[in-house]
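Query structure, 200 tokens:
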């Protein structure tokens, strides 16, 4: 008969309480057992002495006659110094699945594309001319043009005042100013010049 040292569950719903028992491997988990050699109460904190109670002498006896402990009981025996538990290594336990790997690859590819786009934008910004200097030049040119236009307007007004006579109406003065602005000679002055040439 194969004998095992394992846990037998008791207690209420969501409040487990385990017995450490020696039982036939073919028996049900919570069925009949040969001997109870300890208790395990997971509801108590880990540093509590009453969390695991084990009869070490009876455990050694059953181990000597060929009883095989379960993994959880083997942990208790290792902590008590009764039996050494070999360290286990499962490198694939924390490895993500295929879908998670695909998502990680897609995320890495998107991040790489975003980084490349940012670098390209920075290079374009460095190679592009500075817009501030252009704005300043255009402002200076605009200011100079406005000054020149103001000077021209003042000169035309002064010339119009000099060419007009006291008897001229406002319409005559406006016409003379337009002719001077266009670079022409007022009609009256042209008539006077023509009469002088005829007399001479």
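Result returned for the query:
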């Amino acid at each position: 008969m194969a004998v095992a040292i394992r846990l037998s569950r008791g207690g209420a719903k969501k409040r487990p309480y385990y017995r450490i028992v020696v039982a036939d491997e073919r028996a049900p988990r919570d069925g009949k057992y040969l001997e109870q050699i300890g208790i395990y109460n997971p509801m108590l904190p880990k540093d509590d002495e009453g969390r695991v109670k084990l009869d070490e002498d009876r455990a050694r006896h059953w181990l000597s006659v060929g009883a095989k402990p379960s993994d959880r009981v083997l942990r208790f025996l290792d902590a008590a110094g009764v039996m050494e538990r070999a360290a286990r290594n499962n490198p694939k336990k924390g490895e993500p699945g295929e879908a998670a790997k695909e998502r990680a690859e897609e995320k890495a590819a998107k991040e790489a594309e975003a980084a490349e786009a940012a670098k390209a934008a920075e290079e374009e910004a460095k190679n592009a001319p500075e817009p501030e200097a252009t704005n300043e030049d255009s402002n200076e040119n605009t200011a100079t043009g406005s000054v020149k236009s103001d000077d021209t307007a003042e000169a035309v007004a002064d010339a119009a005042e000099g060419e007009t006579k006291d008897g001229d109406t406002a319409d005559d003065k406006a016409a003379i100013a337009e002719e001077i602005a266009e670079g022409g000679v007022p009609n009256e002055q042209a008539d006077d010049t023509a009469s002088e040439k005829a007399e001479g």
